[in-house]
Amino acid sequence: MTNSSDKIHQQLLQLATQAQKNAHAPYSNFKVGAAILDENNQQHASCNVENAAYPLGQCAEAGAISAMISSGNTQIKQILIVSPNDNFCPPCGGCRQKIAEFANDQTQVHLAKSNGEVKSVHFKDLLPLAFGFDKNEST
């Protein structure tokens, strides 16, 4: 990684970790934070918000996507998801499909443990046969 990408990863991790602190997870106590870097290099973050009327809650990734869209941006360059424990927390199936709507096959997905360890993958490896993803395939 270059110093520039290290700095971006650290910024996304810090943003996601801050959002994670605000998670509303009284039922699972599984607080997740997510941060996105969009096509204009703006950053957006959110946390999971549970609801007693399960499954009406919202995942952190979906909230970060909503924040990105509400700011007028439409493409995820990178997304980082921070776990509340010592395991990586990949996006659930629904969030993988939501990410696919605004990603391409080279979009970087960073998974962070609570200790700050980060594992990075290309989105195409996380959801190789995403519904409707062919619109984003590289040529």
TrEMBL record:
Gene Ontology molecular-function annotations: cytidine deaminase activity
What EC number(s) has UniProt assigned to this enzyme?
3.5.4.5
User: Record keywords: Protein transport included?
Assistant: no
Sorted UniProt keywords: Hydrolase, Metal-binding, Zinc
A single Pfam family it belongs to is dCMP_cyt_deam_1
Question: Which EC class heads this enzyme's classification?
Answer: hydrolase
Q: What cofactor does this protein call for?
A: Zn(2+)
Record domain CMP/dCMP-type deaminase: where: 7-134
- Keyword check for Metal-binding: yes
InterPro entries in the cross-refs: APOBEC/CMP_deaminase_Zn-bd, CMP_dCMP_dom, Cyt/Deoxycyt_deaminase, Cyt_deam_tetra, Cytidine_deaminase-like
* UniProt catalytic activity: cytidine + H2O + H(+) = uridine + NH4(+); 2'-deoxycytidine + H2O + H(+) = 2'-deoxyuridine + NH4(+)
Q: Which NCBIfam families match?
A: cyt_deam_tetra, PRK05578.1
Which family does the similarity line name? Answer: Belongs to the cytidine and deoxycytidylate deaminase family.
Name of this protein:
Cytidine deaminase
Source species: Paraglaciecola algarum
Identify the taxonomic lineage of the organism of origin: Bacteria, Pseudomonadati, Pseudomonadota, Gammaproteobacteria, Alteromonadales
The encoding gene = cdd
